[in-house]
Amino acid sequence: xxxxxxxxxxxxxxxxxxxxxxxxxxxxxxxxxxxxxxxxxxxxxxxxxxxxxxxxxxxxxxxxxxxxxxxxxxxxxxxxxxxxxxxxxxxxxxxxxxxxxxxxxxxxxxxxxxxxxxxxxxxxxxxxxxxxxxxxxxxxxxxxxxxxxxxxxxxxxxxxxxxxxxxxxxxxxxxxxxxxxxxxxxxxxxxxxxxxxxxxxxxxxxxxxxxxxxxxxxxxxxxxxxxxxxxxxxxxxxxxxxxxxxxxxxxxxxxxxxxxxxxxxxxxxxxxxxxxxxxxxxxxxxxxxxxxxxxxxxxxxxxxxxxxxxxxxxxxxxxxxxxxxxxxxxxxxxxxxxxxxxxxxxxxxxxxxxxxxxxxxxxxxxxxxxxxxxxxxxxxxxxxxxxxxxxxxx
Length: 394
Known about the structure:
Elements: E1 6-11, H1 21-33, E2 38-45, H2 53-57, E3 61-68, H3 71-81, H4 88-93, H5 96-109, E4 113-117, H6 122-125, E5 132-138, H7 141-149, H8 157-174, E6 180-183, H9 186-191, E7 201-202, E8 221-226, H10 232-252, E9 258-261, H11 267-270, E10 277-281, H12 287-291, E11 293-298, H13 308-315, E12 320-322, H14 324-330, E13 339-340, H15 344-356, H16 358-375, H17 378-390
Helix pairs in contact: 1-17, 7-8, 10-15, 15-16
């Protein structure tokens, strides 16, 4: 095995708690990389740091530098960004003072490689030419924003259209500043507009199969949806379930109850609560929500990337129902490992069929667990990431 190298990891958020997709991906990738190399973490923070974050991350990192972003400076950056050309999320996370601290940390650590997660961190490292750099696009952000435009409020459409155009251009330009590139799925890679996008290597997420295991628990809820409930694609999905799918289900099965479980529910989500719609909010151990539910439903209508929520539910042997959009990245076999609903009627029928014939759900859940065991191992995908970043073979 090659000797250990110093890898400087650059993140836009502290990857703990694991309540957002980018934090989950970063946490497990840092953990996996640390088995082979020494990790030095440079992370931005725009809020309070979780009291357990540093102790959790110190298990895998040799040294951590956190830069707290000032809310006023963020606002000024965004306003000035109206007259710029970069994406607003780049203006949100890039600050001159933070860059100065990054340079100081870089000079102190003297890393062998740099690994940036998300294009919003690229400005910090893009002009370093002395060592090899890898950028993780994670998702095709431009495509994700484009999908939000149609259903967004009228006042947001101009900003989203502007952000879409800027992201598409920036995703193309930033490619050439980095030697190596990764992304979460083939679908997302195809959405990156670059003549060399076939060089972007696919590194999916995994699921902790020792942590997410089947549990015996009273099934308090018929349906479950989980996720960060301030994230637009999740909000959109919940509104779709509640307003389009649930009425069909309730007409034939009025007692059906769905749990919406996830951090930071917006007022729009909280207002949906009634005897059939339970808004659970954040739970410390999300496994409890999975274990208490008969069916997991995530018919995503917008967004990009791989749905970690589906991986977790399948790992816990919960029968899952999703949309074609979400299953393209996942790649599960419709009808055997997952059920794909192409409209609200077919989604509702899938739900009713499982509730009426639980044995069909048991078989589907077993196949779902076998699917993630075979295809979504953090260890396997992290070994590939090590090879990409360090240009070594293991």
